[in-house]
Amino acid sequence: MTLAGKVAVVTGAASGIGRAIAEGLARAGARVAVLDLNEAGARDTVAAIERGGGAASAHRVDITDVAQVDATIDAVAAGAGGLHVLVNCAGWDAPKPFVETTPEFWDKVLAINLKAALRHMIKQEYGKIVTIASDAGRVGSTGEAVYSAAKGGLIAFTKTIARETARHRINVNCVCPGPSDTPLFQKEFAAASPKLAESLKRVIPWGRLGVPDDIAPAVVFLASDEAGFITGQTLSVSGGLTMV
């Protein structure tokens, strides 16, 4: 697989799964724009890509600010001569029972998880969009009602956009990680329940939590022309935890 000559934008790429995806796309030859609210982390990702011989740029972006996202994507596309790959990875969650959630909590989760841009790809009649959802959006997850709803919305959103843009030769797919050992997991989940990771390992057939490098190859494949006849699909990468 090669992405030589392609320009990719990855949101939420300062750490965890987003960073692994950005690095994977760069190894495949893409020039990667790293978007994240965490500017220092974004620069760290760029430095790692450049150490590996790849090309990347860091952009501080609040993904809930549509005008800011649009301006950044426009600038990336103008500077690089197009936009070929968009990976929507930015996301956030904190575990809590549904009855304890607030409108502000809903707004934060949904604003991060349900926005994307397409106009550059439609104009050039080519593009690859990969959205990172979650198996929580496929089968639900106790303590994550709002997050599951947001991720379920992303899955439906992916299928709808795939139908609407197929005539423009834009592939739109969704990757659903299972429980993964990321900075978000450690901060919001493991810290609250230290035994959670061990309990999850017992129910995952592969016998361990996922790691960011498990997710990246699936995204690189879907972003490549080898996946040119695949669109509207949802792929779980969960060590067998979810088989649907």
Task: Note the beta-strand portion.
Answer: 15-25%
* C-alpha end-to-end distance: 27 Å
**Total of helices:** 10
The gyration radius over C-alpha positions equals: 17 Å
Number of strands: 7
Helix-strand makeup class: alpha/beta
For the report, how would you describe the main beta sheet? Answer: 7 strands, parallel
**Low-confidence stretches at least 5 residues in length (pLDDT < 50)?**
108-115
State the oligomer: single chain
Task: Tell me the layout of helices and strands.
Elements: E1 7-11, H1 16-27, E2 31-36, H2 39-51, E3 55-60, H3 66-80, E4 85-88, H4 103-113, H5 119-124, E5 127-132, H6 136-139, H7 145-165, E6 170-177, H8 183-190, H9 196-203, H10 212-223, E7 234-237
Parallel strand pairs: 1-2, 1-4, 2-3, 4-5, 5-6, 6-7
Helix pairs in contact: 1-2, 1-10, 4-7
Give a written overview of the molecule.
The protein starts with 6 loop residues before the first strand and ends in a 7-residue tail after the last strand. With 244 residues, the protein is an alpha/beta fold. Strand 1 (7-11), helix 1 and strand 2 (31-36) form a beta-alpha-beta unit. Mean pLDDT is 84; it is low at 108-115. A seven-stranded parallel beta sheet has the order 3-2-1-4-5-6-7, sandwiched between helices. The protein is globular, with a radius of gyration of 17 Å. The protein has ten helices and seven strands. It has helices spanning 16-27, 39-51, 66-80, 103-113, 119-124, 136-139, 145-165, 183-190, 196-203, 212-223; strands at residues 7-11, 31-36, 55-60, 85-88, 127-132, 170-177, 234-237. 45% of the residues lie in helices and 16% in strands.
